[in-house]
Design a protein that fits this description.
Blueprint lengths: L3 E5 L9 H10 L2 H4 L4 E7 L14 E6 L7 H17 L4 E5 L10 E6 L11 H9 L1 H7 L2 E4 L2 H11 L6 E3 L20 E4 L8 H11 L3 E4 L5 H10 L2 E4 L8 H8 L4 E3 L3 H8 L5 E3 L12 H7 L14 H13 L8
Parallel strand pairs: 1-2, 1-4, 2-3, 4-5, 5-6, 6-7, 8-9, 8-10, 10-11, 11-12
């Protein structure tokens, strides 16, 4: 029996992000793993659609009249639109980030949890209040919560008193383009990849590199994957000073390119070490006091980089197969 599976891709803007990367990598794989089902992917009208060709006989892309920048308005609009869509063509599964959860008695809602930044002072007052008082109800109504790292899954389970049996960890991974041998054999300086926002603590990397006397390149714009892979391959170190992450894709991408990483000592970075990553130096957490002190990173930058760097063995195929198992199984339905 053919099922209709709706994928809500409307949170993604036209720029690349970890969440968009994850969605696109999974869409490259899930239709082939579930050939008897039909995937209907909804993109926001200003989201630009998929950043590359993602095609399959059982996959359909649709542009919907909602903005990727809508915030709470987008969320409420999607709840209404998805209910209407279900009335037109009943779907059996809804694969979405953060929600909404619709018709939990009839639809198996699979909610992806990327991070819990709003519980830690990032994202504004309204999101913090929503995270404290409403988000737990959303997660408990879902048939399953898919966490991008063990740390995020464990924190959500503790914070919202979730049934651990409904929390699946399907970790992010490095895309194939980053698993090729680097073209350059001589590496110089350090690299930072990521947006300039408080939780990323990019100023700590700038200050540490300056104090250590190491050249630093910052990548925060839109560049293609091949160019980014070349930049990883040309650097002696990737600096990852984030105060909070759900995962941290640049870390595994750099490791896949053979580039060692100096990272803040936070849960998702420890997860990578525990999962078998090689070449990560955990250098404490920057002091978020305006100076972005990261003294342990300064000491590490002055040392010789590790000879071996490699990401954990997890791949996007592993994540897709784990999630396909959720679609194929019949987990206990959450109560509305």
């Amino acid at each position: 029996m053919t099922r209709l599976i709706v994928v809500d891709a409307t949170p993604y803007g036209p720029g690349m992000s970890g969440a968009r990367r994850r969605c696109e990598e999974l869409l490259q794989r899930l239709p082939a793993l579930l050939p008897d089902d039909v995937f209907e992917v909804h993109w926001a009208h200003d989201g630009g659609g998929p950043s590359r060709s993602i095609e399959a006989d059982n996959l359909v892309h649709a542009t919907v009249d909602v903005s990727c920048r809508g915030g709470a308005r987008r969320w409420m609009r999607r709840a209404r639109d998805l209910k209407r869509r279900h009335a037109q063509a009943p779907f059996t599964d809804l694969f979405t980030d953060h929600g909404p959860v619709v018709y939990p008695r009839r639809v198996r809602n699979l909610v992806t949890l990327h991070d819990l930044r709003f519980l830690h002072g990032y994202g504004g007052t309204l999101r913090a209040l929503y995270g404290r008082f409403r988000y737990g109800a959303v997660l408990r109504r879902a048939a399953a919560v898919i966490a991008v790292s063990r740390s995020v899954g464990d924190e959500a389970t503790r914070t919202y008193d979730l049934d651990a049996r409904r929390v699946l960890v399907a970790a992010n991974a490095a895309a194939d383009v980053f698993r090729q041998p680097p073209a350059e054999s001589v590496r110089r300086g350090a690299l930072v990849v990521g947006r300039d926002e408080p939780r990323k603590a990019r100023g700590a990397a700038v200050a540490a590199a300056r104090e250590a006397g190491v050249a630093l390149e910052i990548v925060d714009g839109e560049i293609d994957d091949m160019t980014l892979a070349a930049k990883y391959g040309a650097a002696q170190w990737l600096l990852a000073p984030s105060l909070l992450e759900g995962f941290d894709l640049p870390v595994v991408e750099a490791l896949a390119c053979g580039t060692p990483v100096i990272a803040s000592d936070i849960g998702p970075h420890r997860d990578l070490v525990d999962a078998g990553a090689q070449g990560i130096t955990l250098a404490g957490v920057p002091a978020n006091n305006g100076a972005w002190n990261w003294p342990a990173a300064v000491a590490a930058l002055r040392e010789r980089p590790p000879l071996t760097a490699a990401p954990p063995p997890d791949t996007w195929d592993d994540a897709a197969e784990a999630i396909a198992g959720l679609f194929s199984s019949s987990p206990e339905r959450a109560q509305s």
